[in-house]
């Protein structure tokens, strides 16, 4: 792990902040399923090596790190916003809401938040938005892993409920197979009906 991967956390601690949480989400791009966010509060003594942006890791390595993060974190919070709400308020607002929910589920309450991206989330807590934060902050990278694994596991459960679509393989993303399944079978209750690739098949 690069030494500067802790720079934002160390800076906060140097300013007297006790609990610093990293926040990230997974699932903005899919045509189906929820957007899932994670908030992770790591101890300064966090011993796990290999934490990185979840997009750069293999599924096997993400699963291993997910277990290690839960084992050593001070706290982990999860926030989930489903497809119905995504359609109602739009995906950006849903992602920000999921991140706010994840923070509410942290115990102890954090003193400062490190947010992946460039948009603040709806909370009164002090926050620092960090573009590409999942490759710059260890706490945000840990959150990206937890959010991704949590969402993938939810999509595997949806695959059992709606087996015609292959959610276990593509996790709801707009793959060729997924789009072909929508054309053949129409949409199901976890599809995002406002998204291109689904809305063309919605008639209400």
Helix-strand blueprint:
Blueprint: H1 7-14, E1 20-26, E2 35-41, H2 59-72, E3 75-81, H3 83-89, H4 91-104, E4 112-116, E5 127-130, H5 138-161, H6 167-170, H7 176-185
Parallel strand pairs: 1-4, 4-5
Antiparallel strand pairs: 1-2, 2-3
Helix pairs in contact: 2-5, 3-4
| Helix share bin | 25-40%
Strand order in space, largest sheet: 3-2-1-4-5
Report the uncertain regions: none
Strand content: 5-15%
The outline comes out as elongated
CATH topology: Nucleotidyltransferase, domain 5
| Helix/strand class | alpha/beta
First and last CA, distance: 51 Å
Radius of gyration from the CA trace?
17 Å
CATH architecture heading: 2-Layer Sandwich
Mean pLDDT comes to 96
CATH class: Alpha Beta
Taken in chain order, the helices and strands follow as HEEHEHHEEHHH
Sheet having the most strands: 5 strands, mixed
Q: How many structural units, i.e. domains? A: 1
Number of strands: 5
Key words describing this protein structure:
alpha/beta; Nucleotidyltransferase, domain 5; 5 strands
């Amino acid at each position: 792990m690069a030494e500067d991967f802790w720079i934002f956390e160390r800076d906060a601690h140097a300013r007297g902040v006790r609990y610093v949480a990293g926040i990230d989400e997974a699932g903005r791009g899919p045509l189906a399923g929820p957007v899932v966010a994670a908030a992770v509060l790591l101890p300064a003594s966090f011993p796990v090596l290999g934490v990185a942006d979840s997009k750069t890791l293999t599924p096997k390595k993400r699963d291993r790190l997910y277990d290690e993060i839960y084992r050593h974190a001070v706290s982990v919070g999860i926030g989930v916003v489903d497809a119905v709400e995504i359609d109602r308020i739009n995906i950006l607002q849903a992602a920000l809401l999921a991140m706010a929910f994840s923070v509410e589920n942290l115990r102890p309450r954090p003193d400062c938040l490190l947010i992946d991206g460039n948009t603040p989330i709806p909370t009164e807590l002090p926050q620092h938005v960090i573009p590409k934060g999942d490759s710059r902050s260890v706490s945000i990278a840990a959150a990206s892993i937890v959010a991704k694994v949590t969402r993938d596991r939810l999509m595997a459960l949806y695959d059992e409920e709606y087996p015609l679509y292959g959610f276990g393989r593509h996790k709801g993303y707009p793959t060729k197979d997924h789009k072909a399944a929508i054309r053949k079978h129409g949409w199901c209750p976890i599809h995002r009906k406002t998204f291109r690739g689904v809305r063309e098949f919605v008639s209400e």
